[in-house]
Amino acid sequence: MGLIVCAIVAARISGVSRGLDATRLEASMREAGPFGAVLFVGVFTVGVLAYLPGALFVAAGTLAYGKFWGFLLNLLAGIVASCAGFSLARTVGGQQLVTIKNARMRRLIDRIERRPVVSLVLLRAVMFISPPLNTTLALTRLRFREFALGTALGLIFPMAVTTFALDWLVRLPAFARVMRSVLG
Hints:
Elements: H1 2-14, H2 22-31, H3 33-49, H4 54-93, H5 103-114, H6 116-127, H7 131-138, H8 144-170, H9 173-183
């Protein structure tokens, strides 16, 4: 909650909130062409690596690209960001959880490692784009390709629901009025 309040205050002080009109943002991102999409994926990835909530970037992608292209770009960016987080954590931390002694944690990790893709699909349905999940799973025996496949499959449904719901919400006149009053 504190992060949301800080983001709103920062948006008001910096003047960024004046540019948060869905149609204007969508038009400017489309004008940027492929570079805008690449930049978005990069910013999304860096944000998730910095442990910012992925949902903030999903909202930005939905505003900028609309529901269809926003969904596709958000999905791609979510996969790239999650895989980057996994790779970074694996590089820095190795597989530290392989030797964990806690019986409850060991059973949980063993269950995930037995059926990694199915486990990741279920975990993503609940935890969505979760930087701590990426980091934790990197410290197990899970292979990168299993992580990537499970993440890709697991993000499809929650990303679609989030993107389409946000697109619907930002186009409601009442919601737009509330957001304008909150953001200034």
